[in-house]
Each structure stands twice: as C-alpha cells, then as structure tokens.
Specification:
By secondary structure, this protein is α+β, with helices and mostly antiparallel strands. The protein is about 65% helix and about 10% strand. It has a domain of about 120 residues: Glutaredoxin, CATH 3.40.30. It has a four-stranded mixed sheet with strand order 2-1-3-4, with helices on both faces.
Length: about 220
C-alpha cells in the first residue's frame, strides 16, 4: 500500500512538469510574420530588411513580409487606423499587434524574442486586416503580446491545479504515515532502552560495591600494618 501511494505521488508530481514541458516544446513551432511597410527609396528600410533577413536565416520561424506602401495604401491606412499612429514615416514594422516606426534593433530583438517564446497563438494583425477578419480580438497599439486563454488551455490549467493539489494531499498522507511509523519504532525501542538503563544501573552498582570493597580492604591492611 505504501509503495502504491509512493508511486502515485511520484506520478502526480511528475505529470504537471511533463505537461509543462510538452506545452513548452510547442513554443516557437509556428511562424512569426514580420511586416515591413516601406518605400522603394529608403535606406533604413534596406538596413532593416537585411537585419531581419539575417535573423530569419538563423531561425526559420521568422518570416519577413515586405509591403510597398504605394501599392498597398488601403492595407497601410487600415493599419494606421487600428494602431492609431498618424505619422507617415518609414519604415514601419508590425509584429503581431506591436509596431515600430524607424529602426531600433534592441527593441526589435526584444519583441521578436517575446513572440517566439510565447506559448500559444498570437494575433497577426496585418493578416486580419488583409483578409477582413476583424481586429477586435487584437490588442491595439504598442501593447503586450496577444495570448488568449482558450477553453482547451483553461481545462489544462484546471487539470494541472487539481493534480498539484492531489500531489500535495498524497505527500501529506505519506508524511503522516512516516511520522506514525517513527512513533511506533520509538515506542518499541522505549522498553529496550529502559532495560538497558536498568542493566547499566545494576552494573554500575556492582562496580561501586567492588570498588568500595577494595578500598575497605586497603584501609584494613593499612591499619594492621
């Protein structure tokens, strides 16, 4: 029974870690579309294109999509409307629902890494705009990464919480059993200790008697001499 409880305890403790690892393994398996709104004559646009292309060579999940503004004015204007920026400066980079005007490599790297390391789906704002899918579910403006909790994710979270609680319950039960066994062993050892103490006391008493006897003999022998 104890072994069974122990095995159950190990299973319920390891399961959440395994589930977490399984979810984590899915991170970075989807494509991350990076949209570059640009004009034909734009030095910074070329710099950004090269920078993102180099990153895409190292990570196949990164996909660079260039959009010439003059040929895609409707998409550009709808993007401006949704993201609420009025400047007509280039380049404009849109990742998910985050955007940048100009070129800031540190900020760009941070956002790219955040999206790649985020579990689950994200809102591809430009794809929604181009395909008339609506943008109400996308977070607008320079915002946090869109990562909605779907019913499936909620079920997984609830299961993990229940498993963790069950794990705690099993561990408490095992701890109580261990304490009870320890108490029983101490109770068994108590009579033994008492016997040993009595035996030791008797031996000490005998030793004291022998010692006193020897001392008395010595005293008598001194008096006689």
């Amino acid at each position: 029974m104890k072994k069974l409880l122990f095995l159950i305890g190990i299973f319920v403790c390891v399961f959440p870690i395994t589930a977490k690892a399984a979810v984590a393994s899915s991170v970075g398996t989807r494509d991350l579309n990076i949209y570059l709104f640009r004009e034909s004559e734009c030095e910074k646009c070329e710099d950004i294109k090269k920078y993102i292309s180099d990153k895409a060579k190292k990570n196949q999940n990164i996909v660079l999509k260039e959009i010439e503004v003059k040929d895609n004015k409707e998409t550009y204007n709808n993007t401006k409307k949704v993201l609420k920026f009025k400047e007509n400066k280039y380049p404009v980079i849109v990742i998910g629902s985050d955007y940048f005007i100009g070129f800031d490599s540190k900020k760009l790297d941070k956002v790219i890494d955040s999206y790649l390391n985020t579990k689950g789906d994200y809102c591809d704002l430009i794809s929604h705009i181009e395909n008339n899918l609506g943008t109400d579910n996308c977070i607008k403006g320079n915002s946090d990464i869109y990562n909605p909790i779907t019913p499936f994710k909620m079920v997984i979270i609830i299961i993990c919480i229940l498993v963790i609680l069950w794990c705690i319950y099993i561990m408490i039960g095992l701890l109580k059993e261990y304490k009870q066994e320890l108490k029983k062993e101490r109770e068994k050892e108590k009579p033994r200790k008492e016997k040993l103490e009595v035996k030791e006391a008797k031996n000490n008493q005998k030793d004291n008697i022998k010692k006193n006897t020897k001392e008395n003999v010595k005293k008598k022998s001194k008096k006689q001499s």
